[in-house]
Write a structure and sequence with these properties.
Length: 419
């Protein structure tokens, strides 16, 4: 009965209109993901704790520890008023996974970054500072600041991370079915810094926001044969209320932030949305495995406070990877990922403008080398190529027409040790 229920869930989930990640959620957790972009039915490594925890039952008995270092290179462009402002940050993100598997049971844990966009810095300003300039020039702060001047020495920077700690257990329920459940704790930190000089007056608008919350993870793995495996994972929404602090701002900056709804001492809801992840691994030949994955993000059900109106639908991603086992020691992977985000650029808030969520096509290659029975090295590289999007001019806010574009390149180096 239970197997039939989850099979129905799987079929209905695949019927939803068909990175990685949604607007806030991220899935770039491991080197194996960087090399394939499709891990929702993974059973071959400790990083399955993040992608398919019920599939950990298919590991050999033992204790597994995996550490991944993931370098990212970003390229963000804001095109407006005939010019382009660019930010090209670099980031190295560590991720870690641990599993102890014994017969019918497995206990597991992971440290991942499930949301946020790292640090984005525009040394000469961007569309936000241009919008502020237009507001000031239009008399938004008169008579304190005169109308008709320009904003100079502009600067914009945002930094955001969702640090995520997850732990749970998996159980071999049936020869063809295993299940998993876990608890998740997310602690988030966001910093925004906007400043410039207008009519001889310095404007410093800085705010910090912190939040934390709990969520749950459940999973099921269906393995009817050695050639076919199906992974299903559901992550609950994590309720996050961001406490705001603007102590780094001057008086003009505080007044500016209040126009954007950032008031010192107030909280701002920005939940991390729930997601449903489905995957299949199908060994079509002795050395060749197909790995499709599908992920769906329930952003419309999350509380995003003043931006609840901004989402027109839920984001989803669809991926396909292949794995070729050269021999017992080496495996090669390649993958493709498509991300669809249903948020109009006219509705982007401060964070979205700094790190715009756009539709995307991504490609990946990777390799796994089993050095010994206990040591495995994992390499991966992927490139994300986003479709640019244009927001028309908004005379109410003063924002000019702007085109957002970006690209992302990710590497991955991981090492797994089995005791």
């Amino acid at each position: 009965m239970m197997g039939r229920y989850f099979l129905i869930v799987f079929i209905l989930g695949m019927a939803v209109p068909a990175f990685g990640g949604g607007i806030d959620n991220k899935q770039n957790f491991s080197s194996a993901y960087a090399g394939s972009l499709s891990r929702n039915a993974a059973t071959d490594g400790a990083d399955a704790a993040a992608y398919n925890p019920a599939g950990l039952i298919l590991l050999k008995n033992g204790t597994y520890l995996e550490l991944d270092l993931l370098p990212f290179t970003f390229d963000y462009d804001h095109e407006f008023n005939g010019e382009t402002q660019t930010s090209s940050p670099n980031l190295i993100a560590p991720m870690a996974f641990g599993v102890h598997k014994q017969d019918k049971w497995a206990v597991w844990g992971s440290f991942t970054i499930n949301g946020g966009g790292g640090e984005t810095e525009y040394e000469n300003g961007n569309i936000i500072t241009q919008t502020v300039e237009n507001q000031l020039a239009g008399g938004a702060f008169s008579p304190v600041l005169p109308a008709g001047r320009t904003l100079s020495q502009t600067y914009a920077c945002a930094e955001s991370y969702d640090y995520t700690f997850t732990a749970g257990v998996s159980y071999d329920l049936h020869p063809m079915v295993s299940v998993a459940a876990g608890l998740r704790y997310v602690i988030t930190d966001k910093e925004v810094d906007l400043h410039g000089t207008y009519s001889g007056a310095d404007i410093m608008a800085k705010y910090d926001q912190e939040a934390d919350g709990y969520g749950g993870v459940i999973g099921i793995d269906i393995h009817p044969s050695d050639a076919l495996n199906i992974g299903i994972r559901y992550e609950s929404k994590v309720k996050l209320d961001w406490d705001t602090e603007t102590s780094g701002s001057n008086a003009l900056g505080i007044a500016l932030l209040e126009r954007y709804g950032r008031v010192d001492g107030q909280s701002y809801a920005r939940d991390l949305p729930a997601l449903l992840a489905l995957g299949v691994e199908w060994k079509i030949l002795p050395k060749l495995t197909l790995k499709p994955s599908f992920s769906y993000y329930f952003e419309e059900d999350a509380d995003w406070d003043t931006q609840n109106y901004a989402v027109d639908g839920n984001s989803y991603e669809l991926a396909l990877a292949i794995q070729y086992d050269v021999n017992d020691d080496w495996s090669l992977t390649a993958g493709y990922l498509y991300i669809n985000v249903d948020m109009k650029p006219e509705n982007f808030g401060i964070i979205e403008q700094m790190n715009p969520p756009l539709d995307c096509h991504a490609f990946a290659v990777g390799a796994k080398y089993r050095v010994t029975e206990k040591v495995t090295l994992i390499l991966g590289f992927s490139g994300y190529f986003y479709e640019d999007a244009t927001a028309s001019a908004d005379p109410v806010t003063g924002r000019p027409e702007v085109t957002y574009d970006k690209a992302l390149y990710q590497g991955g180096f991981g090492i797994q040790y089995r005791f």
